[in-house]
Amino acid sequence: MNVLLKITEKLKDEKIHMTLIDPASQGPEQSAAIAEQASSAGTDFIMVGGSSNISSRSIDHAIISIKERTSIPVIIFPGSPEMISPHADAIYFMSLLNSRSIEFVIGHHVNAAPFIHDLGVETIPMGYIVFEPGMTVGRVGNVDLIGRTDSVRAGAYALAAQMLGMKLVYFESGSGSPTHVDSGVVRNVKKKLDIPLIVGGGIRTPEAAADLCHAGADIIVTGTVVEKSSDIPYELKRIVSAVKQH
Ligand code: 1GP
Fold this sequence. Notes:
Oligomer: single chain
Bound molecules: SN-glycerol-1-phosphate
Strand order of the largest sheet: 1-2-3-4-5-6-7-8
CATH architecture: Alpha-Beta Barrel
Structural class: alpha/beta
Number of domains: 1
């Protein structure tokens, strides 16, 4: 299965919802239970990862358990070079473009590339751009944060990602953020950007997801909403259906 092809094919018909599961927040069984409920709520892809440092063993266990209970593709969303697993369908080969630390822009990638190559896992080149408030990823990634309404800087970074040959751009406010990226920024950037735009961080309601999709976001990521919810199918179904209505 080519995951990037699946993403681009699906985007011809509809917008995409992805559920982020952080294996540092719960054990593999609970991660799998969340994935199963997210899948039944209609999410299209599971992303596994986060900013906390997790061993390749923990990532392996989480992905194996998730794959036992769901059939939707699993993409690794790595917060460190250890977060690699042969059990994933793909890994975002993501450069944190507005980090001040060279490791997050290209250094970790150089270290991880030979291992990923030998494992044969599909890599999806992605420009990862972090906005205020940034939360854990902003701090850990030593990010020069973009203001949440700064269309000019956001657009310049997104275009640079596209010109570097990246296949996706991800606008991130940080997991658990009280705000999400401003929809005006998404609207302005999408006027010039040709590659799909992912938006995540702080999206908790169907209204927020709808607003961002209406502005031009192609893929919406939610994580905290499922980790905190006592009724995942109900809450997620409402968000997924808001995404699919655009
Ligand atoms: C974080 O964009 C994702 O990397 C999801 O954020 O946990 O706030 O939904 P939330």
